[in-house]
């Protein structure tokens, strides 16, 4: 299942004056396609899917597919209401997406049964493969391995996007092996949390679902290819070199505002490109980001 | 500011086949108005605001105002994106609402500055008084007293809906007094979390923002009027009598699914009236609810 192994890059969906900025989004997608990432995931958390209307999301899915060339496009379809998720899935399929990414967004807390029925409804309404998106930092929903197993049994589930792995390599390998043992063989496991990308791939994950790759694909590709070519130590070393970047993600309240500031700094997105109420980082925070990029030769 | 003291009742927005069931919603509103609650808050968390489209929400606001008679109607306007919140505020004002209720919904975690700017944008775009809705169980955003103070300074903020108070009466009084000291005098304080309604009013809260009152207004009115008439011990005793109901809220994962089951049991809402993916309670859970209602003479 091409696109659900290797490096999947998550571009921003830049806004300008509270509307999707088609030009800069198309530019980000073209840049990713030309760099050779294995898949492009539009409308991930980094793509602000939760903030956009159904119509905006259909539009973004179409732009992504039009500008991705041969690179498979996955589209995030999460929403609070099942019927809206299904509508997003249909729109993504109509746009030509190769796969769907679904996180169980919550307002009222969800039970495990609620979430199984959500994935069942969606997989019954689409022909596209669906990636289970486990992102407790934004959804506040916690999966268990048993729940992964229940959902992964549904026809159409192709991958699970897991949060970061333990930092100890042995613990990381055991963690990935335990998930692998819980789900059918055809379901790939992809790590997220960019600081854990190298460690997750080295621990046996099939894919890296990467925020930074959506804006700075080269270092993420170098990490991914190193593991794929049997040089996991090189991947871990490159990730350690990028530690000042991962530290900024932690210090500035998550990856999204930092990658938005990076994209703005590099001229890839208009200023203040995130949806309100998400305020841009301060001038001093931006100056620190600029220093880190320069120090790491990423600007 | 009528409507922001006393009892504000939060009706469900029942769905039927994934569409708002106008008839049962209008019936719930008429029932509340005729019972004499001090305000009706449509599209609170209990009214599933987070799950409905902008168009559905404008429609629900209009039905509420049309069927509320002389009772003031407050409308919940929360959304993940500031421009959507503003659009909901304009629609609620056009529908004839008397006030607005706004929780800082989150997907990406919000900073204090984000939330202040959200309330600033909304209060600048509406003439209606705005109630600050502090509901960490659904928004996963935590207010501090300092943040209450910053927001309450904005022109147009009229009340703060706080989560439950400490169970110890002295601690509850101190808690409410500390919030009172932090905000301007014209800003009322309303308690939520129905198990804490009597304790909150007895501790000096001006209002009770009540889930149960949206479906079973009489016992909530009895509690509210007892405190207003200088009989707080009677209010606390009535709340203690209802403890089996509050216990069900805790046992069955929150108040929403329980009040939905109560409304369905009493014929006030169609079966399975909550938006998917929220599954209805099981037959055995419903049987237990029915037993409790019967035992408490509430059916």
UniProtKB/TrEMBL annotation, chains A, B:
<dbReference type="GO" id="GO:0008840">
    <property type="term" value="F:4-hydroxy-tetrahydrodipicolinate synthase activity"/>
</dbReference>
<dbReference type="InterPro" id="IPR013785">
    <property type="entry name" value="Aldolase_TIM"/>
</dbReference>
<feature type="active site" description="Schiff-base intermediate with substrate">
    <location>
        <position position="161"/>
    </location>
</feature>
<keyword id="KW-0456">Lyase</keyword>
<feature type="binding site">
    <location>
        <position position="46"/>
    </location>
    <ligand>
        <name>pyruvate</name>
    </ligand>
</feature>
<protein>
    <submittedName>
        <fullName>Dihydrodipicolinate synthase family protein</fullName>
    </submittedName>
</protein>
<dbReference type="InterPro" id="IPR002220">
    <property type="entry name" value="DapA-like"/>
</dbReference>
<dbReference type="Pfam" id="PF00701">
    <property type="entry name" value="DHDPS"/>
</dbReference>
<comment type="similarity">
    <text>Belongs to the DapA family.</text>
</comment>
<feature type="active site" description="Proton donor/acceptor">
    <location>
        <position position="133"/>
    </location>
</feature>
């Amino acid at each position: 299942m091409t696109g659900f192994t290797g490096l999947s890059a998550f571009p921003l969906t830049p806004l300008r004056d509270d509307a999707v900025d088609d030009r800069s989004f198309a530019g980000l997608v073209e840049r990713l396609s030309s760099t050779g990432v294995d898949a492009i995931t539009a409308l991930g958390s980094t793509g602000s899917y939760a903030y956009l209307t159904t119509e905006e999301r259909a539009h973004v899915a179409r732009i992504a597919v039009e500008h991705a060339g041969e690179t498979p496009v996955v589209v995030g379809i999460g929403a609070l209401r099942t019927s809206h998720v299904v509508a997003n899935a249909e729109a993504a399929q109509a746009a030509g997406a190769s796969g769907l990414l679904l996180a169980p967004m919550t307002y009222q807390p969800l039970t495990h049964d609620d979430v199984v029925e959500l994935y069942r409804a969606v997989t019954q309404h689409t022909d596209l493969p669906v990636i289970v998106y486990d992102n407790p930092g934004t959804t506040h929903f916690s999966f268990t391995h048993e729940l992964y197993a229940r959902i992964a049994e549904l026809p159409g589930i192709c991958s699970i996007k897991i949060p970061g792995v333990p930092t100890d390599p042995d613990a990381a390998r055991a963690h990935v092996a335990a998930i692998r043992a819980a789900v059918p063989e055809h379901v790939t496991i992809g790590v997220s949390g960019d600081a854990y990308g190298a460690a997750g791939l080295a621990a046996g994950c099939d894919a890296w679902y990467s925020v930074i790759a959506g804006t700075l694909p080269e270092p993420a590709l170098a990490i991914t290819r190193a593991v794929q070519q049997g040089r996991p130590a090189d991947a871990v070393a490159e990730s350690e070199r990028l530690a000042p970047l991962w530290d900024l993600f932690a210090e500035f309240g998550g990856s999204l505002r930092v990658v938005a500031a990076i994209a703005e700094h590099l001229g890839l997105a208009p200023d203040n490109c995130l949806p309100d109420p998400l305020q841009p980082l301060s001038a001093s925070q931006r100056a620190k980001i600029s220093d880190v990029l320069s120090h790491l030769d990423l600007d």
